[in-house]
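Supplementary Methods, section 5.1.

A reviewer requested that the exact input to the structure prediction be made available. We therefore reproduce it here, unchanged from the version used in the analyses.
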Amino acid sequence: MNPTSKASYFDILTVRIFRAVFLLSEFREVVAVGARRLTDKQKKKIVADYVQLQSYRATAKLNDVSDATVKKVVKEDPESAHLCAQKKRENSKDMLSYMESKQGEAQELLGLYLKAMADPDKIAEATLPQLSTAFGTIVDKFAMLGDQSGIEVPDDGLLEALNAAADLSPPDDVEMLPEEENDDAEK
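The structure derived from this sequence is encoded token-by-token as follows.
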């Protein structure tokens, strides 16, 4: 059969039309899935997540929608965004109030931990990395407390001792280890 005949041209044209119709229907299905409508519950969740995360991208990823969708939903519902932000502030205040009410218990527990860490048997059993980590953590936390105004740090000498320990030069009352002799230096 000659490729230029009417029958082959018609066959090729028919195949192309069917292919185009098939691709168009596939495209419509994909677009229909991507353009699903959000329920009011989903929109409220998106707004609440945005207030919490303060990021369109993170909120979009969490809710399986686009950044643009998050932005649109948040801008369409400023009242919900305001209510969510207010609730977040209330939750923060509640948590700070709870932490303040537990401050005495936390300080007692901290005192117990510090005593346990000062136990000579525990210190003897600990590895150097464990001791170093514990010491570094304590120094860092007390240094942060000293930097914060409004927080009263008891003056029991511990902070001063920790600051002195953090100093690179040894205290006056500690003897330095003797330097190792270099055998090659004498030769």
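The CA atoms of residues 113 and 119 lie 10 Å apart. These observations are discussed further in the main text.
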